[in-house]
Specification:
Blueprint (H helix, E strand, L loop, with lengths): L1 E3 L3 E3 L16 E5 L2 E5 L5 E5 L9 E5 L6 E8 L2 E7 L4 E5 L5 E6 L1 H4 L12 E7 L4 E12 L5 E12 L5 E7 L2 E7 L3 E8 L8 E5 L5 E5 L9 E7 L2 E6 L4 E6 L4 E6 L4 E3 L2 E13 L2 E11 L14 E5 L5 E6 L8 E3 L2 E6 L12 E6 L3 E7 L3 E8 L2 E7 L1 E2 L6 E2 L3 E6 L8
Parallel strand pairs: 1-31
Antiparallel strand pairs: 2-36, 3-4, 4-5, 5-6, 7-8, 8-9, 9-10, 11-12, 12-13, 13-14, 15-16, 16-17, 17-18, 19-20, 20-21, 21-22, 23-24, 24-25, 25-26, 26-27, 28-29, 29-30, 30-31, 32-33, 33-36, 34-35
């Protein structure tokens, strides 16, 4: 595995990230030879990343009003669909030249923000497409108080199926918190990371044509935490469970075929700690799970580190562990293209080791392929047709006090896995 530098493009000014995570505020996708970046100020910037393009030249820019941040982006119908965290919770579709095709404000369904603070704003948590439709999962979180004065979490959420013209074919509404979507021509899988209300299923698989539930699954654990991510297979799905910190393979009706421990509670120097498996990608060759930060069972602070925190784990489709590799820090999402994964490594808020800032490339079967080191934290990535792109954001750690990195886009060519391994 090598480390490389790559062509970059400036994305403008942004307040640096801090020691604690502030949630997603950038997104990137690849479409029609362009890398389209959704920025923290809500603008879109498109750069030429075709093989013979050389330096990254900006092709177009689309500006927005208000104070949104673009947190999701997928290619669709020759253009791109983006989703915001904003007062309006907007979903927009642009053509390959940046012109607006259609837009939709999710706040009309989710309700207005309880307060205009970041985590209470309508949030387009995930986008997916099967080519014919674009699917979006949006949610709004608010705090409530019961009759006894207890603080309660409450979510309003909607899954949408959009046609190419922006028409809505169907919606699926719950009071759970959707975090991830995956879709094919027949199914839409929805992962819910928190279920504090009536909806008590961490995974719902919907019919792509009408939005009716085909089957549901839940890890069956206590508490609100349920599922972190889902990846569809031809004969079922693979999920990362927030409920019990394991990975599961399910058949086409939701029956469990196997489960593997990923970052289950472990005693480290007398402190019991765990880490959430936040992401999964699967093909007919295997699955890769990616875990996040260490947390203690008691309280929030700990000096212990779970041995499997910030780890990518490759697993065969019969449930055998193939390989493990570090991802450096908290990954806010994955870029995927067939057997390739691009994992953006952002803050490890406990250790704050800037030497770990990087984009890391993996193969489902063979594991680590390449690394792009960065000065700042990498917060979004995409990969397609031999090209990977990543968004770097500047960061200031509280115990250092100086700014590392910049707001910029990186492009690298992806390597090919060694067939002999």
């Amino acid at each position: 595995m090598s480390s490389q530098r790559a062509p970059t493009a400036d994305l403008g000014d942004v307040a640096p990230a801090r020691s604690r995570h502030q949630g997603r505020r950038s997104a990137v996708t690849l479409t029609s030879g362009l890398a389209v970046v959704g920025t923290a100020d809500g603008d879109l910037q498109a750069f030429d990343v075709s093989a013979d393009a050389g330096p990254l030249h900006r092709r177009w820019q689309y500006g927005t009003d208000g104070e949104p941040s673009v947190v999701a982006a997928v290619p669709f119908d020759g253009g791109v669909v983006t989703g915001e965290r904003s007062v309006r919770g907007e979903i927009r579709c642009h053509d390959a030249g940046g012109d607006l095709r259609w837009r939709y404000e999710t706040r009309g369904d989710l309700g207005e923000a309880q307060q205009e603070t970041r985590f209470l704003l309508p949030f387009v948590a995930s986008l997916a497409t099967d080519g014919d439709r674009c699917y979006a999962a949006a949610r709004r979180y608010e705090r409530r108080t019961d009759d006894d004065g207890n603080d309660l979490r409450h979510f309003e959420s909607v899954v949408y199926a959009f046609g190419a013209d922006g028409s809505i074919d169907w919606t699926y509404r719950t009071d759970g918190s959707p975090i991830s979507l995956d879709a094919d021509k027949n199914r839409v899988a929805v992962a819910y990371n928190r279920c504090p209300g009536d909806h008590q299923h961490g995974l719902v698989v919907l019919d792509a044509d009408d939005g009716d539930p085909r089957w549901m699954w839940d890890p069956g654990t206590d508490g609100q935490r349920r599922v972190g991510d889902v990846a569809l297979l031809a004969d079922g799905a693979v999920v990362s469970s927030h409920g019990d910190y394991r990975g599961y393979r399910l058949d086409s009706g939701g029956r469990e075929r196997w489960r593997v421990p990923l970052a289950t509670p472990t005693d480290v120097a007398g402190d019991t700690v765990y880490a959430y498996p936040n992401h999964v990608h699967a093909t007919d060759e295997g699955a890769v799970f990616v875990t996040g930060n260490t947390y203690p069972e008691d309280g929030r602070e700990t000096d212990a580190r779970h041995p499997n925190e910030h780890t990518a784990a490759g697993v065969s489709l019969d449930g055998n562990r193939r390989w493990d590799a570090p991802v450096g820090g908290f990954a806010s999402g994955l870029g995927t293209d067939g057997s390739l994964l691009a994992v953006p490594g952002a803050q490890n808020f406990r250790d704050r080791d800037a030497d770990d800032h990087a984009l890391r490339l993996f193969d489902v079967v063979d594991g680590p392929l390449d690394t792009l080191d960065t000065d700042g934290v990498v917060t979004a990535a995409a990969v397609s047709d031999g090209t990977a792109v990543a968004v770097e954001e500047p960061v200031v750690y509280h115990d250092e006090g100086h700014e590392r990195g910049a707001y910029r886009l990186h492009r690298i060519e992806t390597p090919v896995a060694d067939a002999s391994t």
